[in-house]
Design brief:
It is built from six helices and five strands. It has a five-stranded antiparallel beta sheet, with helices on one face. Helix 1 packs antiparallel against helix 3 and helix 3 packs antiparallel against helix 5. Helices cover about 50% and strands about 20% of the residues.
């Protein structure tokens, strides 16, 4: 192959590798956010909130009446599909990178299959980082106006908002 073809393939493969590294890092990133909701003092939402969170695998670990704060903890389960998908993507990308490097340099042929082992390594890294303890904090700010301050994972916020507003989580 000519040098312009190899260099363009090398640049594209390098860009794909950089993008994939950032994708793997973003997949296991902590996505805790804070959200405020208006509070109706006439409704006791704690039993419904506790029931919902226990159904999600959380356990009440702290109850501070002075700070008006409740804390639940649970374990975040990593996605099996995403683990396999990320491992496969990294393996394919590493093989492509190895083939480009083999055609440009004098790498021994055993390097390409060896680079494919980066896939299971990346999958294990994702599995370990994504399977971490997660926390839900609900604090009552007495006002005025009274409101709930909610800290939880981004995907939990819509259901928790519904429960705190007295509607069933759907």
């Amino acid at each position: 192959m000519t040098l312009p073809i190899l260099s363009s393939i090398g640049v594209l493969t390098g860009l794909l590798t950089v993008g994939l590294v950032f994708f793997v890092r973003a997949a296991s990133k902590d996505r805790t956010q804070e959200h405020t909701l208006p509070c109706d003092p006439s409704h006791d939402v704690v039993p419904a909130l506790d029931h919902h969170l226990k159904g999600q695998g959380y356990t009440l670990v702290a109850q501070d009446t002075v700070a008006r704060q409740l804390v639940w903890e649970g374990h975040g389960r990593p996605s099996g599909f995403l683990t396999l998908f990320l491992g496969g993507m990294v393996s394919v990308n590493a093989v492509c990178l190895g083939l480009v490097l083999e055609s440009v340099t004098a790498l021994p042929p055993v390097v390409v299959p060896t680079l494919a082992l980066l896939g299971p390594l990346a999958a294990g890294l994702y599995w370990r980082q994504a399977g971490r303890p997660q926390r839900v904090q609900v604090q009552l700010d007495p006002g005025p106006p009274p409101q709930f301050i909610l800290r939880a994972q981004r995907h939990e916020l819509p259901a928790l908002s519904q429960v705190l507003q007295g509607r069933p989580a759907g």
